[in-house]
Amino acid sequence: MKIKLLFLLIISSSLGYTQTSSVKVNARAQKDKILIRWAIDTPSEWKKAHKTGFIVTRFTVLRNGQILPKPEKLLLTPKPLLPEPLDSWMDLAQKDNYAAIIAQSIYGENFEVSGAKEGALSKIVNMAEELDQRYTFALYAADMSFEGALKAGWGLVDNNVKPNEVYTYQVSVFENPKVKSASFAIGLKNYGALPEPTDFVAVPDDKKILLSWDYETFKTIYSSFMVEKSSDGVNFTPISKTPLVNMNDKVDHPSRTMYYIDTLSVNDKMYQYRLYGISSFGEKGQMTKPIAAKGIAALVTAARLIDYHIENSNSVSLEWEYPKEAEEPIQSFEINLAEKDKGPYKVVSTGLLPSDRKFECKKLFPSNYFTVTVVGKNNQRLTSQSMLVQPIDSIAPSKPMGLEGTIDSLGVVRLKWKVNEERDLLGYRILKANNKDEEFVDIYQKSYVGNDYVDNTISLKMSNSKVYYRIAAEDKRFNISEPSEILVLEKPDKIPPAAPIFKDYDTKDGKVFLKWIRSYSDDVVSYSLRRREKGQEKWEELKQINDTIQEFIDDKTENRKIYQYAILAKDKSNLWSSLDHSTITVTVLDFTPVKTIPFLQGLPDRENKKITLSWDYIKNKDKVVGLSIYKNIKGEAPALWKELSGDVFTLEDHDLKINIEYEYHFSPTLQSNSPAKVESITVIY
User: Fold this and answer.
1) CA 110: distance to chain centroid?
2) pLDDT on residue 5
3) CB 565, CB 502: distance < 8 Å
4) What share of the chain is helix, strand, coil (3-state, %, to 5)?
5) What is the C-alpha to C-alpha distance for residues 411 and 456, in angstroms, rounded to an integer?
6) Which residues, in sequence order, are CB contacts of 642 under 8 Å at separation 6+?
């Protein structure tokens, strides 16, 4: 069964004084008795309790599986439990250092505080720090010595218990209602063996062993741990004189694992370790099974790459040297590869044996930097200097595949193809011919990076009706592949007019002013000015123009919306110009305040000593979500008077003086964030 660690080892808390104090109680069932422990959670009340003592009351709440209608009360401490006199501690303190700490905390004339300060105020600080230290060490020592806790009046053993009953133990400070009492329910049926710690691991290092185990699971069960060590696997002795306590467990940074480092005199000797926990009642838990470990010498020698043999353009065999007598602490070798000496390096092979001195690496770069890492049995790593390997590459990339393309009405060609898989690929050569029997020309004149290309050099006025394309792959050694299959594209049989373009635009008072340059094509018969909201697919025609007009004012816009405008030309063959360069995007910003309040009145009522204000909003126009009302006496500066929601339409003002002119200013807040017109009214009261 799980037992809460008594007082959460209060040394790990901040030890700050709280506004209220309370008793913390814990209990542990054994085969024929129940052990009880308690403490107070503040140092000041803990010190006072030395003189008043503790009262323990037992309530029998369950018998034979049945809840008793009225719990049976039994006072276990006819007299309050107080610390035993100092003289009675001598024998126990001689054999139990923790009992001596408890006695010193209670009866010692002073409890040394490091870095003691001088001065009157400093004495007060020192006294508070000394009390904290007495309190901290006393409760820590009580966790380590149940017998000492009993002598201090912080524990009790109840032997008058029955297996068929369950009890609630209540602990309180005698005649001190300021300290809240505490209870704990338990019965003999709760008895169970303390568990064996888990995840007990030994990690070897140079002349030391790092021991670790699961602390998070067992910190509510054990207040300390003990590690035992053996050199023969039979005779075990404690690894330390005192139990091990985790001093790194903090409330804001809880520890998951507990560690202990055992220093060794030599590396080659095998040791066995086992572990058990100790509860705050002094009980030892079950022992773990022994684990064996020995020290491992630290790595001091790095491997050295000495040679390489290029097998082919994509494979190299590496060789390195390492002293055979230094192999003992090695776990393996790792091979690392990068395209640049500075990295980043990637591991290309792991788990090479300590006896290995060769490795073949495939899938090379044009330039390859290799290193060898020695991995120790304790995961220590040493990496060699780098070696450059540049394979001879005369093999061209494979023939590009999947070349396809389109040509639009303006003669712009868009090509795309499948990407080659060569790691040393530099790019592609773009080849074009205007006739079937014509020699292909490299139109980009260098390697093109990517797998799509736009060619806008096609002339639709030339007599050739087709255009021909091929591409070739090129690697970083400038080897060029066989050209791809020929792609034939049909040129459009009609030439659309040149596109008009916008030369200027402006926005003012919610209107958009547009100007454009007409198409230079001679066969244009009309223009179409179109508009759409950004993000919409469909265009709306604003105006069809059949004359020389080159500007337009769009006054049917909405504030803060983004519009796209397009101007298109149509020729005699009903071909429209392209939209590619004939669109602009305009954001409409109209800061003209929106009139929102059409009705506003203020009625003075001297009989009832008030002014009643009433108003209304224009429906469905930039919905009002809030209203700020500013008030002032005429001639003075306005000040914010009221903040209202958009569903309030009347308000009374009772803060008035006779024969004063009051001004009220109504400033609505609109859902659209557009500015709203401020409306004002003057009322004579």
Assistant:
1) 49
2) 35
3) yes
4) 10, 45, 45
5) 7
6) 627, 628, 629, 651
- pLDDT class for 463, splitting at 50, 70, 90? low
Supply the DSSP string of 609-652, one letter for each residue: TEEEEEEE--TTSS-EEEEEEEEEETTS--EEEEEEETT--EEE
Q: How does DSSP classify residue 187?
A: E
Q: Give me the torsion for CA of 30, 35, 41, 43, rounded to 10°.
A: -140
Element (H, E) at 515: strand 511-517
Between CA 447 and CA 661 the distance in angstroms is 83
- DSSP secondary structure letters along 254-280: --SEEEEEEE-S-SS--EEEEEEEE-T
Residue 40: exposure state from Cβ atoms within 10 A (0-12, 13-18, ≥19): buried
Lowest mean pLDDT among 102-106, 308-312, 338-342, 416-420: 308-312
State the Cα angle at 465 between 459 and 467, rounded to 5°: 70
Rounded CA gap, 527 and 519, in Å? 9
Nearest to 679 by CA among 665, 659, 658: 665
Q: How many angstroms from the chain centroid is the CA of residue 39? A: 39
560 pLDDT higher than 90: no
**What backbone torsions phi and psi does residue 27 show, to the nearest 5 degrees?**
-145, 155
> What are the C-alpha distances in Å from 144 to residues 37, 94, 148, 287?
12, 16, 9, 18
Distance of CA 573 to the CA centre of its chain: 63
Find the helix packing angle between 97-107 and 120-144, rounded to 10°: 150
Cα–Cα distances in angstroms (integers) from residue 375 to residues 110, 303, 343, 380, 401, in the given order: 55, 10, 20, 6, 45
179-to-53, 142, 156, 182, 276 alpha-carbon distances in Å: 12, 20, 20, 10, 36
* pLDDT tens profile 590-647: 677 888 888 999 999 988 999 999 999 887 667 888 988 888 999 888 888 989 998 8
pTM: 0.48
- Which run of H or of E encompasses 147? helix 146-151
**pLDDT of res. 219:** 87
pLDDT given at position 4: 34
Q: Give the model's confidence band at 345: pLDDT under 50 very low, under 70 low, under 90 confident, else very high.
A: very high
* Mean pLDDT over each residue of the chain, to the nearest integer: 87
Say how many C-beta atoms besides its own lie within 10 A of residue 387's C-beta.
Answer: 19
Enter the tokens of residue 304. Answer: 């050295």
- Per cent of the chain over pLDDT 90 is 50
What is the biggest distance separating any 2 CA atoms in the chain, rounded to whole angstroms?
Answer: 123
Contact predicate 629/642, CB 8 Å: yes
Q: How far apart are CA 200 and CA 192, in angstroms?
A: 22
Give the Cα separation of 611 and 600 in Å (integer).
Answer: 13
List the 271-278 sheet strands across, edge first: 237-238, 224-230, 271-278, 291-293
Cα–Cα distance list, 121 to 125, 128, 129, 514 (Å): 6, 11, 13, 81
Token pair recorded at residue 291? 């684990």
- Distance (Å, rounded) from C-alpha 676 to C-alpha 625? 12
The Cβ of residue 190 has, within 10 Å, a number of other Cβ atoms equal to: 15
Q: Do 560 and 569 touch, CB atoms closer than 8 A?
A: no
Report the C-alpha gap between 88 and 136 in whole angstroms: 23
